[in-house]
Amino acid sequence: MSAPAGPAAGRTDDTGDAGGGAGAPETAAAGGPPGQGGRAGSGRGPFGPPPWVAWMFLLPALLLLGALVLYPTIFTAGRSLFDAAGRFTGLGNYVEMFTNSATFTAVRNNAIWVVLAPAIVVLLGLIFAVLTERIRWAYAFKLLLFMPMAISFLASGVIFRLVYEQSPDKGVANAVLTTIRDTFAGGSQYPGARPRTTPQTPVAQQGGAVVTKQPVTAGQPVLVPLVGLRPDQIPPSAAAPKAPPGGPGLSGTVWSDFTRGGGGTVNQMDPTEKGLPGVAVEAVRGGGVVATTETADDGTFTFRDLPPGSYTVRLAAENFTAPYGGVSWLGPSLITPAIILAYVWVWAGFAMVLIGAGLATLPRDVLEAARADGATEFQVFRKITVPLLMPVLVVVVVTMVINVLKVFDLVFIIAPGSVQPQANVLALEMWRVSFGGGNDQGLGSALAVFLFLLVLPAMIFNIRRFRREQR
To answer: How many helices (H) and strands (E) does the chain have?
Structure first.
């Protein structure tokens, strides 16, 4: 009974061995590793449709990328080898570029941008991100700081061109500065006024002040008529001028020797003219100021209790100095820092949002442990928060470096034409040479290639860092 079963079993084992030995490789070849399904020749990938389906979806984007990025890059590199007329010059454009003073100015300004702009943006973004964690209405504050990112660089340039206007009546920056300065230092009441010499009291203008040419003594009236004043410069409280009161002291009158509509007598106090109140008058003797006083509403002044002797009467220069007009933001010396401030205004909110997102992921137990160990808030910030945020800070810094190397809009809009050579950067120089009057696309292409080579290391650094983080 068992003997027949043996061969049958043996045959079964042989069949099983055959199926297990020959069939298993066939199954593996057809379906691949267990759990990955599929038939040989089906064209399906291990996890879904075949790769060519993905390429079909990527093809439109690749064509667009090639048309808008790859082809212009190759064409620009080739065009940089030809002159403005299209003749082949080899590296002639590059030689001309590096022997041109405008290029050196642009490179210098770009270096200033790379050093200052990213550092200021990251520092302000870090400070704002840390401080907004400790205040109420943090989201409203972040929204206000991020709002400039919603404005185009063109609009931002127009805004700051108005902010930096020289006239305090138009420019916000100078309006603030002049207001602060006038609050603490005061302003001149009669800027631009000049004296008219009288036979009685010859006067002259020296160093901005009005002084008597000859010493005067008590009882001798000092008459100082002034001209060159606009009607709106005369205070409303001004009254008709009067003759000096006389007496034992040293006295005189200061008035505006001008009659509106004509008429009047030169060097004479006419009823239609106005005395000048508030004029600072000094009595000078031996090179030093002995006494000071101010004119009344009718222009009269009196020095009482002066020691006997002769004095030089001087109307202080502060009465006539031109009003403080603020800072020349758009001048050659400040134009680059002024544009960098505009750039910081636009990008500080962007840096704050990115750094704030990184700050939200920090392990709070580490910060609390440091505080429990007695670390001050500044020590926690410097030794824990900043090192843990370093990857985020590097992202922001590299992004800012790439952006400032390509900056164009703000410089072109804010800088007036007269100071654009001083504010020049590589992107602006490239546009100016190619399209802004130079009409030399060969040299402009060489500048574009040079700018691309400057940006390339930062891009490679970013790509490598992203890959390193993905691993």
So the answer is: 18, 11
How far, CA to CA in Å, does 117 sit from each of 218, 392, 400?
65, 17, 8
DSSP 8-class letter at 199: S
Neighbours of 58 (CB within 10 A): 11
- Angle (deg, nearest 10), helices 101-131 and 390-405: 150
Domain coverage including residue 229: 194-319
- The whole-angstrom separation of Cα 249 and Cα 308 is 9
β-pairing, 274-275 vs 280-285, is: unpaired
Residue 120 structure tokens: 């200021």
Query: What tens digit of pLDDT does each residue of 135-191 get?
Result: 888 888 888 888 998 888 899 999 999 999 988 888 999 999 888 887 776 667 888
How far from 433 is each of 69, 160, 450, CA to CA, in Å? 21, 26, 14
Q: Which two tokens stand for residue 132?
A: 């907004």
Q: Are 424 and 379 in contact (CB under 8 A)?
A: no
Scored b (16 or more CB within 10 A) or e, 287-326 reads: eeeebebebbbbbbbbbeebeeeebbbbbbeebbeeebeb
Q: What is the pTM of this model?
A: 0.71
Distance of alpha carbon 69 from alpha carbon 65, whole angstroms: 5
Same domain, 449 and 392: yes
- The enclosing H or E element of 200 equals none
Cα–Cα distances (Å) from 365 to 67, 352, 369, 378, in that order, read: 51, 23, 6, 17
Same domain, 389 and 446: yes
**pLDDT digit string, tens, across residues 14-37:** 444 444 444 444 444 444 444 444
Q: What string of DSSP letters covers 438-450?
A: ---HHHHHHHHHH
- CB atoms under 10 Å from CB of 22, counted, come to 10
Q: Residue 70 in 3-state DSSP? A: helix
Q: Considering the domain boundaries, does residue 21 fall inside one? A: no
Residue 149 to residue 2: CA distance in whole angstroms: 90
**Does one domain contain both 355 and 228?**
no
CA-CA-CA-CA torsion sign (388, 392, 398, 401): negative
| Token pair 């007009």: residue | 325
Do both 362 and 407 map to the same domain? yes
Model confidence over 179-204: pLDDT tens digits?
888 777 666 788 888 888 777 778 88
Asked whether residue 46 is domain-assigned, the answer is no
Residues 128 and 243 placed together within one structural domain of the fold: no
Instruction: Examine residue 29 and state whether it is found in any structural domain, yes or no.
Output: no
8 Å CB contact between 44 and 36: no
Residue 82, SS3 per DSSP: strand
List residues bridging with 269 in a β-sheet: none
